[in-house]
Amino acid sequence: MEIKEILQILPKLTASERLVIAEAALKLNRQERTSLSIDQQKQQLAAARTPITDFEGEDFDYTDDDQDNLDTHV
Fold first, then answer.
1. What pLDDT, in 10s, does the model give residues 9-58?
2. 21: exposed, middle or buried (C-beta count within 10 Å: 0-12, 13-18, 19+)?
């Protein structure tokens, strides 16, 4: 699956489904990081920070289903 396809599908998923995907991606990154050089690790860290700063201050529109899922996990 191409990145463009994944990004188009993400808004259609529930918040909990998106979190599962994010957790899986982070786990893979941690596993790969152990085999990278220091310079490669720094490059990945810089690349990971960019999307985070892009989303700071964003208002996310959660559906009622998403809120129900959040309430059951709290």
1. 999 999 999 999 999 999 988 887 777 788 887 887 888 777 665 565 55
2. middle
Please report, for residues 7, 20, 74, the alpha-carbon distance to residue 52 in angstroms, rounded to integers and kept in the order given.
15, 17, 24
Residue 13: count of CB within 10 angstroms of its CB: 13
* CA atoms of 57 and 2, how far apart (whole Å): 28
CA 27 distance to own-chain centroid: 11
Side chain identity at residue 25, one-letter code: A
Q: Name the pTM for this structure.
A: 0.45
Per-residue b or e along 29-67, where b marks 16 or more CB atoms closer than 10 Å to that residue's CB:
eeeeeeeeeeeeeeeeeeeeeeeeeeeeeeeeeeeeebe
